[in-house]
Amino acid sequence: MIRVLVVDDDALALELHSAYVARVPGFEVAGQAAGARAALTALSEPDRRIDLVLLDMTMPDGTGLDVARRARAMGSRVDIIAVTAVRDAETVRAAVSIGVVQYLIKPFAFGAFRERLEAYRAYVEGLDRAAGEATQSEVDALLGSLRTVTSPALPKGLSDATLQAVAERVRTAAGAVSSTEVGESEGMSRVTARRYLEHLADVGRVRREPRYGGQGRPEITYAWVRG
């Protein structure tokens, strides 16, 4: 079994990603850490075997890059997959330079998560099979196993560009927003906006919140899940 440390300062994301790990054959959760210091403490425990870290990049007590650098300075050879909403080129470049083997951008569905872990498992199994000096084709196959990942299709009728626009609208809102508000600001119908918002809720990037006002059923609104 590949033992995984899940690191994220957002409690919902921490539980969601841990549950995702448990659903992928060959992996088990070795621990959870809600911040940079907790992650480094877990990695420094001599009696705890950790093979892979799912590492958030933004935490109140330090960045994922800080954790990765400190881990390498401690002599840790643990593999790291970045799981983060941070997507600027400088951070990605820095992550690659310190040995991050995969970079998964939030929000994502379970299918995308599973593909990254399955690719990593193929990489580990290839290393285990290799004995002595590897041939060029073996090296190519090992490295290629980490990169032959395709993003799963969105639910029918949803586009990635519109999903990102809706996600950004919710992320930058002062509070929770309704499907009507998102639809009006993004130039789409309330029904269409709700489909995108519900998808974001299903993958754990927004949470549903009731908005009470007047008589009748409360209106469902959506708030960004930080982390």
From TrEMBL:
Natural source organism: Microbacterium phycohabitans
InterPro entries: 2C-system_Tx_regulators, CheY-like_superfamily, Sig_transdc_resp-reg_cit/mal, Sig_transdc_resp-reg_receiver, WH_DNA-bd_sf
UniProt main location, coarse: cytoplasm
Source taxon at top rank: Bacteria
Domain Response regulatory: start-end pairs: 3-121
Name listed for the protein in its UniProt record: Transcriptional regulatory protein
Compartments it resides in: Cytoplasm
Pfam families documented for this protein: Response_reg
NADP found in the keyword field: no
PTM annotation (4-aspartylphosphate): residues: 56
Listed SUPFAM superfamilies: CheY-like, Winged helix' DNA-binding domain
Keywords from the named record: Activator, Cytoplasm, DNA-binding, Phosphoprotein, Transcription, Transcription regulation, Two-component regulatory system
